[in-house]
Design goal:
It is a single chain. This protein has 159 residues and is of the alpha+beta class. It has two domains: 121 residues, Small protein B (Small Protein B, Chain: A), CATH 2.40.280.10; 31 residues. The protein is built from four helices and seven strands. Strands 1-6-7-2-5-4-3 form a seven-stranded antiparallel beta sheet.
């Protein structure tokens, strides 16, 4: 058996950075059943509407959809069950303090295999208001237009 190296992306929450201001990120392990791992190896998962909570000193990932394994039998898993995330106790205590004091949320950004182990990139984030989203889009558009103008200037074309 060949040991996997590197990082293989399974699922990404593309809308997370649009809807949330990411303040800090954490790499966490995730507790999975056998059929969940096999389903993830097929590249099937969805982080849409997923979030994490801290209950009784443990971090739980909720609303992640990992479809049932097609070759599975009666031992197949439930697609939207809550899954425990693996973090150090002191990290969890720090997270709880930040979440309670300033109204932040835990949002999963991506799900991937790192050296053969399933990992979740979890973000400590603050929700964006509609005007923040518009400002970010305008800033991105302005930067894109400046990059285009610089590219045209380098090629000797006038605008």
């Amino acid at each position: 058996m060949v040991k996997e190296r590197g990082r293989k992306l399974i699922a990404q929450n593309r809308k997370a950075r649009h809807d949330w201001s990411v303040l800090d990120t954490y790499e966490t392990g995730i507790v999975l059943a056998g059929t969940e791992v096999k389903s993830l190896r097929q590249g099937k998962a969805s982080l849409v509407d997923a979030f994490a909570t801290v209950d009784d000193g443990e971090v739980w990932l909720r609303n992640v959809h990992i479809p049932e394994y097609t070759e599975g039998t009666w031992t197949n898993h439930e697609p939207r069950r809550s899954r425990k995330l693996l973090m150090h106790k002191d990290e969890i205590v720090r997270l709880v303090g930040k979440i309670q004091e300033s109204g932040l949320s835990l949002v999963p950004l991506s799900l991937y295999f790192s050296d053969g182990k399933a990992k979740v990139e979890l973000a400590l984030a603050r929700g964006k208001k509609a005007h923040d989203k518009r400002r970010d889009m305008a800033k991105r558009d302005a930067e894109r237009e400046m990059a285009r103008a610089i590219g045209r200037a380098r090629k000797g074309k006038r605008t």
